[in-house]
Design brief:
The chain is of the alpha/beta class. The protein has one domain: Vaccinia Virus protein VP39 (Rossmann fold, 3-Layer(aba) Sandwich), CATH 3.40.50.150. The chain has 9 helices and 7 strands, in the order αααβαβαβαβαβαβαβ. A 7-stranded mixed β-sheet has the order 3-2-1-4-5-7-6, with helices on one face. β2, α5 and β3 form a beta-alpha-beta unit. α1 packs parallel to α9 and α3 packs parallel to α4. The mean pLDDT is 92.
Length: 235
C-alpha cells in the first residue's frame, strides 16, 4: 500500500478505507455512541472528512498531532480515537473556547491529550519542527491563514500530513479568505492537494461513497455537506 507520507490522493484514500475497514467500523460505532451521549456536541466535519482524518492518523502513526480549532470536539474525538487505536502518539489541541473539555471522555483523553486554552498564534509552544500531523479548523480568514502559512506550513518538516477545513464549500474556493491563501501557497510550492468535496470534486466523492457502501460503512453518523476540507503533505 502506498504510504500517505508521500502522497494523499484518491487511490491512497480508497486503499486506506479497505485496509482499515474493520477498525473504522468499530471507531464509527464508538463515535456514534459518543455523539448520542454528548448532546451538546455540534460536529463540523461530515463523515467522509472525519473518516479520512482517522485513516491518515492510523496509517502514519504520528507521535505529535497539533489541532488548531476544536469547537465542541468532534474532530478532537476522531483524532484521539485514531491515536488510541494506534496505541501511541499525543494530541495537542488549541482553541479560544474550551467547550471541548465537556465533551471528550476520559477513556479517550487519558494520557494522550493536552488542551491549550488560548490563541495558538501567541502560545509560543507550537514548535513546528516537532509536528507530525497538522489539523486546522479555526478562524477562516486570510489574516489567520497568512499566519499559519508563514509560521507553521513553512516550518514543518517535509512529509507531514495537513488538513485544512472550510476551503471548498463551492466548486471553487473564493477569491479571498483562508482558502485562497492556502491554495495559492500550495501552487507556489508546487504542492498538490486532495479534497472529497461533493461540490468541488463530485466524482471523488462518489467513488469514496461507493467504496463505503461496499464495505458496509455508508450509514450516516453526521451529514454536513459539502465536505470542504483539503488534505496534502508538505514538501
Amino acid at each position: 500500500m502506498t504510504s500517505t507520507r508521500s502522497i494523499i490522493d484518491l487511490e491512497a484514500v480508497l486503499n486506506l478505507y479497505r485496509a482499515y475497514a474493520e477498525d473504522l467500523g468499530v471507531a464509527r460505532d464508538a463515535q456514534r455512541s459518543l455523539l448520542s451521549a454528548k448532546r451538546g456536541m455540534r460536529p463540523k466535519l461530515d463523515d467522509i472528512e472525519a473518516e479520512i482524518t482517522y485513516l491518515l492518523v492510523r496509517d502514519n502513526r504520528p507521535a505529535r498531532i497539533v489541532e488548531i480549532g476544536t469547537f465542541h470536539g468532534w474532530s478532537t474525538s476522531w483524532l484521539l480515537r485514531a491515536l488510541a487505536d494506534n496505541g501511541t502518539g499525543h494530541l495537542h489541541s488549541y482553541d479560544l473556547v474550551d467547550h471541548v473539555l465537556g465533551t471528550i471522555p476520559g477513556d479517550l483523553s487519558d494520557d494522550r491529550w493536552t488542551f491549550h486554552h488560548g490563541d495558538a498564534r501567541t502560545g509560543g509552544d507550537l514548535q513546528p519542527s516537532t509536528i507530525d500531523h497538522l489539523f486546522i479548523d479555526a478562524a477562516h480568514t486570510a489574516r489567520f491563514a497568512r499566519w499559519y502559512v508563514a509560521d507553521l506550513l513553512e516550518k514543518v518538516n517535509a512529509g507531514v500530513p495537513v488538513s485544512v477545513h472550510d476551503v471548498y464549500h463551492h466548486r471553487h474556493s473564493g477569491r479571498f479568505g483562508e482558502g485562497r491563501v492556502v491554495l495559492d501557497w500550495l501552487v507556489r510550492r508546487g504542492n498538490g492537494h486532495f479534497t472529497a468535496s461533493a461540490t468541488a470534486a463530485p466524482s471523488v466523492f462518489e467513488e469514496i461513497s461507493a467504496v463505503k457502501r461496499s464495505l458496509g460503512l455508508d450509514d450516516v453518523l453526521h451529514r454536513a455537506a459539502p465536505n470542504p476540507m483539503i488534505y496534502f503533505t508538505t514538501r
